[in-house]
Amino acid sequence: MVVLLLAYAALEAVANTLGAIGKAPDLDRRRETWFRFALWIVLALEFALAADIIRSAIAPSWNSIGQLAAIATIRTLLNWFLVKDIESYNEKREARAEAQMRGPRE
Questions:
Q1: Do residues 56 and 64 lie in contact, with contact meaning Cβ atoms separated by under 8 Å?
Q2: pLDDT band at residue 105, thresholds of 50, 70 and 90?
Q3: Phi, psi values for residue 37, rounded to 5°
Q4: How far, in Å, CA of 37 to CA of 45, rounded?
Q5: Which residues span the membrane (predicted)?
Q6: What is the pLDDT of residues 39-88, one digit of tens each?
Q7: What residues have CB less than 8 Å from 44, skipping those under 6 apart?
Q8: H helix or E strand, kind and range, residue 60
Q9: What CA–CA distance (Å, rounded) separates 33 from 19?
Q10: Residue 11 to residues 19, 47, 48, 54, Cα–Cα distance (Å)
């Protein structure tokens, strides 16, 4: 499932990137592509962590529990930083949209 999500996300990002070839550089389009790809990665990390938890719950051993703890910590930190980046980008995007709605200042 995780591989399919990431494959779809990668295909979507590649399609958006290829669609921009030959056009004027558009920073907003690049950021939007990154934003959508980041959202897919967050979803994939959630599914991967859930799968690891289920796997350890089915056949627990101290070794698998230790590995799960390490993997869960790393994935949780990755997810947290990625979500912070997404929130920051989203705030900037909303501020730009709001400024465009107000129009040029006189």
A1: yes
A2: low
A3: -65, -40
A4: 12
A5: 35-54
A6: 899 889 889 888 888 888 887 888 888 988 998 899 889 989 999 988 89
A7: 2, 5, 6, 9
A8: none
A9: 11
A10: 12, 19, 20, 28
Sign of the Cα torsion 80, 86, 89, 91 reads negative
Total length of the chain: 106
> How many structural domains comprise the chain?
1
Instruction: Report the alpha-carbon distance of residue 7 to residue 46 in Å, rounded.
Output: 16
> What residue type is 35 in one-letter code?
F
Full domain range(s) for residue 64: 2-102
Place of tokens 């558009």: 26
Contact in structure between 45 and 75 (CB atoms under 8 Å): yes
